[in-house]
Amino acid sequence: MTERIFNFYAGPAALPLEVLQEAQAELLNFDHTGMSIMEISHRSKAYEAINAEAEASLKELLGLSDDYRVLFLQGGASSQFFMVPMNFLPSGRTADYILTGSWSEKALKEAQAFGQTHVAATTSADNYRRIPSATEIHLSENPVYAHITSNNTIFGTQWQSFPKLTAPFVADMSSDILSRPFDASNFALIYAGAQKNLGPSGVTVVIIRKDWAESSPATIPTMLRYSTHSKNASLYNTPPSVAVYMINLVLRWLKKQGGLAAIAKKNQEKAALIYDAIDRSGGFYRGHADKDSRSLMNITFRLPSEELEQTFASQATQSDMIGLKGHRSVGGLRASVYNAMPLAGCQALAAFMREFQRTNG
Ligand SMILES: *Cc1c(COP(=O)(O)O)cnc(C)c1O
Questions:
Q1: Most CB atoms closer than 10 Å: which of 102, 114, 345, 358?
Q2: What is the mean pLDDT of residues 69-85?
């Protein structure tokens, strides 16, 4: 294989070509050190500069002040499911969860091991086709936090805007962080596994308000306290340095694209190409998500039969479009079109969809 192909995998997912080329160019000799970034001490000046730049760029892109810290942790977004309640759900208090898909269910399940929880809203009865409306959300009396999943990677739904809630907001933004502007200062804690929209796997980004970062209980293991990582600027122990380096390159790329408003415009344009192919297919393609809950990152759809779905996925692969098979729990097809997916990839997929319908419809 000599050419790059269009990668629609949900995660790990496509990275910007320019970023990969940059990493390739300095693989053997990073920043005149005569070493690869993989070989450099995390206590070196060179690595400290990357760590600091990545934190500053994330805050800059999100418009966050010094009231926030950015941490680079390990264990995936899945470890945040338990770290959040472990640090912030004391006995006698309640944490609220809004359920919009499999990932929020998993987050709730982990919290249940630590204390009282309350489901403030759920759309599971609708097979998670939609995001609840503001009037469907009923918080408990005085929750320590309200947890939401901003984009539902598996079902293909996304909060179009965030509700105004009185509780401190915690969000899993693994699959849409930095894909659009939003008011990040409404959140006490945001977490995201990097492998969808930020970089490679192996690092989890946590954006945390400083008062929260300082309030971890001393009774939990040192490594599982946010305060440990906040105090040590993510350098308490050996960080996933190569993954953080890659995130830093992705953030530079994102700034060059014009930041979140500019990337959001591109993301809308890209997703519209594929949703148009669905909506104009006269029912041949059926979107899983309700129209007003559609995700710009993960586009889920079905064909008239599972057999056709399989044929679609394998013919798409032959046409250099990979990773379109849907998650096993929803079935059908899923096109993941994160920031790094070029417009040309969405154009190619939309054209392929029309041609596939013409020959199989
Ligand atoms: C992928 C994903 C996760 C799990 O991430 P890991 O880093 O594999 O633990 C959690 N939440 C959402 C929304 C995801 O898309």
A1: 345
A2: 98
Tokens for 142, please give them. Answer: 């005085």
Within 6 A (CB) of ligand 1 lie 11, 76-78, 103, 149, 153, 172, 174-175, 193, 196
Q: Is 176 annotated as a binding residue?
A: no
Q: Please compute the mean of the pLDDT values over residues 1-12 and round it to a whole number.
A: 89
Which atom of ligand 1 is found nearest the CA of 76? Answer: 7
Instruction: In whole angstroms, give the CA distance from residue 96 to residue 119.
Output: 6
Is the pLDDT at 139 greater than 60? The verdict is yes
Domain boundary assignment for the chain? 18-257, 259-360
Q: Is 159 annotated as a binding residue?
A: no
Q: pLDDT tens digit string along 221-243?
A: 999 999 999 999 999 999 999 99
C-alpha to C-alpha distance for 101 and 152, rounded to whole angstroms? 6
Spell out the residues 6+ positions from residue 144 whose beta carbon is closer than 8 angstroms to its own: 88, 89, 90, 93, 94, 95, 167, 168
The listed CATH number (3.40.50.2300, 3.90.1150.10, 2.40.260.10, 3.40.640.10) that belongs to domain 18-257? 3.40.640.10
**What local confidence, expressed as pLDDT, does residue 197 receive?**
98
pLDDT digits over 296-334, tens only? 999 999 999 999 999 999 999 999 999 999 998 889 999
User: Which pLDDT value is given to residue 329?
Assistant: 84
Q: Is 103 a catalytic residue?
A: yes
Does residue 237 have a known ligand-binding role? yes
Rounded (10°) CA dihedral 109, 112, 118, 120 = -20
Rounded mean pLDDT of 132-159?
A: 97
How many A from CA of 78 to the centre of ligand 1?
6
Residues 187-210 have a mean pLDDT of 98
Q: Which CATH architecture has domain 259-360?
A: Alpha-Beta Complex (3.90)
From the candidates 103, 159, 212, 253, which is the catalytic residue? 103
Q: Mutation test of ligand 1: which of 98, 110, 174, 206 has the most ligand atoms closer than 8 Å to its C-beta?
A: 174
Q: Is 196 a known active-site residue?
A: yes
Q: Which residue in 59, 176, 196, 270 is the catalytic one?
A: 196
Return the pLDDT at 1.
52
**How many angstroms separate the Cα of 252 from the Cα of each of 139, 178, 198, 286?**
39, 12, 11, 37
pLDDT reported for residue 3: 85
